[in-house]
Design brief:
The structure holds two protein chains of two kinds. Chain A is built from twelve helices and eleven strands. By secondary structure, chain A is α+β, with helices and mostly antiparallel strands. Chain A folds into three domains: 223 residues, Multidrug efflux transporter AcrB transmembrane fold; 78 residues, 2-Layer Sandwich (Alpha-Beta Plaits), CATH 3.30.70; 111 residues, Gyrase A, domain 2 (2-Layer Sandwich). Chain A has a four-stranded antiparallel sheet with strand order 2-3-1-11. Chain A has a four-stranded antiparallel sheet with strand order 5-4-8-9, covered by helices on one side. In chain A, strands 6-7-10 form a three-stranded antiparallel sheet. In chain A, strand 4 and strand 5 form a beta hairpin. Chain A is rod-shaped, with a radius of gyration of 34 Å. Chain B has two domains: 203 residues, Multidrug efflux transporter AcrB transmembrane fold; 88 residues, Alpha-Beta Plaits, CATH 3.30.70.3400. In chain B, helix 6 runs antiparallel to helix 7, helix 6 runs parallel beside helix 8 and helix 8 packs parallel to helix 10. Classes of the chains: A alpha+beta, B alpha+beta. At the A-B interface, strand 1, helix 4, strand 11, helix 7 and helix 8 of A face helix 1, helix 5, strand 4, helix 6 and helix 8 of B. Strand 11 of chain A pairs antiparallel with strand 4 of chain B.
């Protein structure tokens, strides 16, 4: 009895701690609930980069993070998916046009040298000096004409390369390409060793916005490889708010219906299971906040289903307890053997559910992952809730008392006599839990 | 008081007596499902047993909301407008969504082939502008776009996940019970999945319902639930075999076990259906099909655990007994 009281107060302490967590920590809601956009990018191989290595992905992720953050929209997420994909999540922004323009831009700056082709026409050839060799860039204006231009400052290696290149090309033209487009092709008069260069906008000059965008892109870091958007999803905030409101209604209606059913069918045991269920839901949500699990629509579906599984565990136990009572066992023995015998069913079925969820978690798309995660947490916790919490409450309430009022368990007096006859178990033996 | 036949008198449902009838009824119910699946596999160019949504085939869905009620004539006008801006064969569907009692929005969703990201933003803007000519208040609420390679990859991953889940279940049940239990569990799983897939194939034929990756989640949930039900019945048979095998035949034990677990099967299914129905009627439009798939699967799972698992086991056990004799 003493142990049972300790357990009871432990359960209560965990419950209070959960309520505290629920009150203090904010819930992280998924994009489908708050509204926002989700883009999936895939790194593209090219002649220059035939294979996507983890290092390339690291710098791609870094560059994309910089660009998305430059939009200044708050908590964005850039996440690696598989070996060559990035998932970008931008909350609250549903118009992806701007985001896409920003992400989609490759910001490939290249310096090229002239080559004479077979037919005498002039072509351009890569020199190995690219946007990667930049330290930073600024918008500037030309002192003489006042035209907008982009000022470049190379890093040490870039400065050396630039110096070598201008030495080699003295008296010739050098071309500057941005995203494959020729920006300008000035004549090199002398070797430039200061590590600085300017790009002017050719004949028409740059618009300010044009120069600014180029600078932003260059500063955000050139993407080491091209990235293509292969998936796009955006959810308006009204739809999201609607989903939250509806999920709350559903949760309330569903759980109330289940509770009413349990109380009507299993009486006192049903009432106990309702309390256990409330504790279960509180702890479950607290775990969601601690992990933290980002709640999405499918995640909520997983949670609701795990409630179903928790109730199933209780039903299994209660049905078994009722059967044991019908066989004429004492209340204490019936409760214990009800739990023990239902346990193998609960264990086997929950393990199989967890196995399916693990497969889902490792192979599923992000949406499916959320579902699998909440269901795994829910099922694991339901074993604790059904076995420990419900059992503890039952023992504390009924103790070792006799079964005086079968109606409290949804049984009739006649049931008990009948079942007793049917199984041919002697009352004395049955009382001590001996089986035929 | 001694009465050796009492175990039979307790049956509420004599499964063993009616076992062939129940298997035949199940077979008859499966016929339209299988027919619909075969029909789609033959008629669809990709030979898929279901109509596949953009998650698997690649494509773009744009969803707009407006206060104006959409009639059939409106939809055909939208179609003509879209073809003008170069969108070929769009699939246009309308639904309504009530935000509150007096604020009902009409949703128009347009499904097209994949709009690539290069000119994508511009194209979507064009579509929005075209629609805004007719519907002043039109608002783009949702964009969902999946590239074709990603789609086929997801389909592959999904099939792998399904097969792995099946294999894992058979191994687990064979290990915890016996090998024949494992195969019968697989059979009941297969039957349940067939019902869900079949009904969605029928929905696909008549209502053009296409499945998305949520549907796969639903199928996997159904597998988890169905194996739950089957295991509960098997667990009871296993236990009774241990204690009663000397006194009673395996048929009697199976019959008694199914009856002993009957109340649990019905109550669990009932409580699950409460929540699912609440989700179906009050949940968002986005998860309606998802909930429907699980509802069908859970119901099918309860039936298969009562009417298929035990009956097939009794037939298999009888065959073994005959061989041994």
């Amino acid at each position: 009895m003493k142990n049972k009281l300790i357990l009871f107060w432990t359960i209560m302490a965990i419950t209070v701690a959960s309520i505290f967590v629920l009150w203090k920590k904010p819930t992280s809601l998924g994009l489908d609930l708050v509204g926002g956009s989700r883009l999936m990018l895939e790194a593209q191989t090219s002649a220059a980069v035939p294979k996507i290595t983890p290092e390339i992905m690291d710098s791609l992720q870094y560059a994309i993070e910089n660009r998305v953050n430059a939009m200044g929209v708050g908590e964005t997420i850039v996440q690696r998916v598989g070996s060559k994909r990035l998932l970008v999540e931008i909350p609250n922004i549903t118009d992806t046009t701007k985001a896409k323009e920003f992400i989609g831009q490759t910001a490939e700056l290249e310096f090229k040298r002239p080559v004479v082709g077979a037919n005498g026409e002039i072509g351009w050839e890569s020199t190995g000096l690219t946007g990667k060799d930049l330290r930073k860039s600024l918008v500037g204006s030309a002192p003489t004409t006042g035209e907008w231009m982009v000022e470049l400052e190379f890093n040490n290696e870039g400065a050396r390369k630039f110096s070598d290149l201008t030495k080699e090309l003295t008296g010739k033209q050098m071309a500057i390409f941005f995203n494959g487009k020729l920006q300008s092709a000035p004549r090199v008069n002398e070797q430039i060793s200061g590590g600085r260069a300017q790009i002017t906008g050719g004949e028409g000059g740059f618009e300010y916005a044009e120069a600014k965008e180029m600078v932003d892109l260059l500063n955000a870091g050139a993407l080491p490889v091209g990235a293509q958007i292969i998936q796009e999803e955006s959810v308006g905030p009204t739809l999201g708010a609607d989903s939250i409101k509806k999920s709350k209604t559903v949760g309330f209606i569903g759980i109330s219906a289940v509770m009413i059913f349990m109380i009507l069918y299993y009486r006192v045991m049903g009432l106990i299971s309702c309390f256990a269920l409330i504790i279960y839901a509180l702890i479950n949500f607290a775990i969601f906040k601690l992990v933290p699990v980002t709640l999405t629509l499918t995640g909520i579906a997983g949670f609701i289903l795990s409630i179903g599984m928790a109730i199933d565990a209780n039903i299994l136990i209660f049905e078994r307890t009722k059967e044991e009572l019908k066989m004429g066992r004492s209340l204490f023995t019936a409760i214990n053997s009800g739990f023990d015998r239902a346990f193998t069913s609960i264990f086997d079925s929950n393990v199989s559910t967890i196995m399916t969820c693990l497969i889902l978690y490792y192979l599923g798309a992000s949406m499916v992952k959320g579902f699998a995660l909440t269901l795994i947490i829910g099922v694991c916790l339901s074993m604790f809730s059904a076995i420990t919490v419900t059992k503890n409450f039952m023992h504390l309430i009924f103790g070792s008392s006799e079964l005086k009022y079968p109606e409290l368990f949804g049984l009739k007096k006649e049931d008990i006599e009948n079942a007793y006859q049917a199984t041919e178990t002697k009352r004395e033996k049955a009382k001590f839990g001996v089986l035929d | 008081m001694a009465n050796t036949n009492l175990i039979e008198n307790k049956y509420k449902l004599d499964i063993i007596k009616w076992r062939y009838v129940s298997l035949i009824v199940t077979g008859i119910l499966l016929i339209p499902c299988i027919a619909a699946i075969i029909y789609l596999m033959v008629t669809q160019p990709n030979h898929a047993p279901l109509k596949l949504g953009i998650d698997f085939t690649g494509g773009t869905i744009l969803q707009y909301s407006t206060d104006k009620k959409m009639e059939i004539s409106d939809i055909s006008k939208v179609r003509v407008d879209l073809e003008k801006v170069g969108i070929k064969n769009p699939v246009i569907q309308t639904t309504t969504q009530s935000l509150s009692d007096d604020n009902v929005k009409n949703l128009v969703s347009i499904r097209t082939s994949f709009i690539s990201d290069k000119e994508g933003a511009q194209k979507i803007q064009e579509i929005t502008n075209t629609l805004a000519d007719d519907y002043k208040d039109i608002e783009l609420v949702q964009v969902n776009s999946v590239g074709p390679t990603l789609g086929s990859e997801l389909l592959k991953n999904t099939m792998t996940a399904l097969i792995l889940a099946f294999v894992a279940m058979v191994i687990y049940v064979s290990f915890r019970f016996q090998v024949e239990y494992g195969w019968i569990a697989l059979l009941t799983l297969f039957q349940d999945v067939l019902f869900v897939v079949g009904i969605f194939a029928i929905k696909g034929i008549f209502y053009d319902t296409a499945i998305d990756s949520l549907f796969i989640t639903a199928i996997l949930t159904v597998i988890g639930y169905s194996i739950n039900d089957t295991i509960v019945v098997f667990d009871r048979i296993r236990e009774n075999m241990r204690f009663l095998a000397k006194k009673y035949s395996s048929n009697e034990i199976i019959n008694a076990s199914i009856n002993q677990t009957l109340a649990r099967s019905i109550n669990t299914t009932a409580t699950t259906l409460f929540t699912l129905l609440a989700l179906y009627f009050f949940g968002g439009a986005t998860i309606k099909d998802f909930v429907l798939a699980i509802t069908i699967g859970v119901t099918a799972g309860a039936f298969s655990s009562i009417f298929t698992a035990g009956t097939v086991l009794s037939i298999v056990k009888e065959k073994f007994a005959k061989k041994a004799a």
